[in-house]
Design a protein that fits this description.
Blueprint (H helix, E strand, L loop, with lengths): L8 H10 L7 E2 L5 E2 L6 H30 L5 H26 L5 H6 L1 E5 L7 H17 L3 H8 L7 H6 L1 E5 L1 H6 L10 H4 L9 H12 L6 H15 L13 H35 L10
Helix pairs in contact: 2-3, 3-5, 5-6, 10-11, 10-12, 11-12
Length: 293
């Protein structure tokens, strides 16, 4: 199959920006463009309001409990220390811990079906969540969200300052779930797939192909074709033989992934069959234990 290799890494990101697609896709560390579209401005505001309300309630509740527990016995220094610790916990520690544990989700994002991911499309970690929470003190709390609104409006991808510093972006998970389609073997490649073997490939590369096929409806035809050709050119060397000339890159990717899936199913079935035979052998003489009944 003749495949034109797409641009790699930064070149691909530049190409997407020149084509006006930088706001519609995410370029991964594998130099693969995913169709993770940034969340709309109003959705981000709604998620922020829900989160802000939840954390504010937690902050006020904790301060009230501390006041009741400490009472008049606490000194001014103890009051100051406890107050600062409680505020820091609810404004920084709790939000960063929630995003770290849930991989980018929070109460507000669950309610709006959104999540925070890295710029390359991967899940965020503690560092990303902490940077977002620290900058949120100024963007969200001290300016009552005004800083975040201004920085989001100034970004083509709706990123606030915390997102830019952390290297993250807020995307919708609803579109992902709606466009996730099952993999099927293209009819015209059934004969080609007979006897084809696919060598192990990097998990990220296979996942990128699966993501592309599952979300093509969210991409422009130009970006979709460019990414499909780039992925097909990178995956083709893992196939025992190339696809027929003129094969659509997306159809080739689907065929390869189906071959991989069926091979894995066959391997698991053989392993289960081998375990069943060994179990039956263990029950045969002389290993069989007489039934006392």
């Amino acid at each position: 199959m003749s495949v034109t290799t797409g641009p790699k890494g930064g070149d691909q990101a530049d190409a997407l920006r020149r084509a006006g697609l930088a706001g519609d896709v995410v370029v991964t560390g594998e130099a693969v463009a995913l169709d993770l579209r940034p969340t709309g401005f109003s959705t981000r505001i709604l998620a922020g309001l829900v989160d802000g309300l939840a954390y504010a309630i937690g902050l006020v509740t904790t301060l009230v409990l501390w006041a009741r527990i400490a009472g008049s016995d606490a000194s001014d220094a103890q009051w100051s220390t406890a107050t600062i610790a409680i505020i820091a916990s609810w404004l920084v520690l709790v939000p960063s811990a929630v995003e770290t544990v849930t991989r980018g989700r929070s109460l507000g994002r669950v309610a709006t079906s959104t999540t925070v991911v890295r710029d390359d499309g991967g899940p965020i970690g503690a560092r990303h969540a902490t940077v977002r929470a620290l900058t949120g003190i100024i963007e969200l709390w001290l300016t009552l969200g005004g800083g975040a609104i201004i920085s989001s409006l100034a970004s083509a991808r709706g990123q606030r300052l915390g997102d830019r510093l952390a290297g993250t972006i807020v995307v919708s998970t609803r579109a992902h779930d709606a466009q996730r389609l099952p993999l099927v073997m293209p009819p015209e490649l059934v004969g080609w797939a007979q006897g084809v073997t696919v060598r192990p490939m990097p998990a990220g590369l296979a996942q990128a192909a699966r993501d592309l096929l599952g979300r093509t409806a969210l991409m422009t035809p130009e970006a979709r074709g460019r990414v499909a050709r780039s992925l097909a050119a990178r995956i083709e060397p893992y196939s025992s033989r190339p696809a027929p000339a003129g094969t659509n890159p997306e159809r080739f990717l689907a065929a390869v992934l189906v071959v991989r899936r069926e091979a894995e199913r066959a391997r698991l079935a053989q392993a289960q069959d081998r375990e069943d035979r060994e179990a039956a052998l263990m029950l045969a003489l002389p290993h069989r234990i007489p039934d006392p009944r």
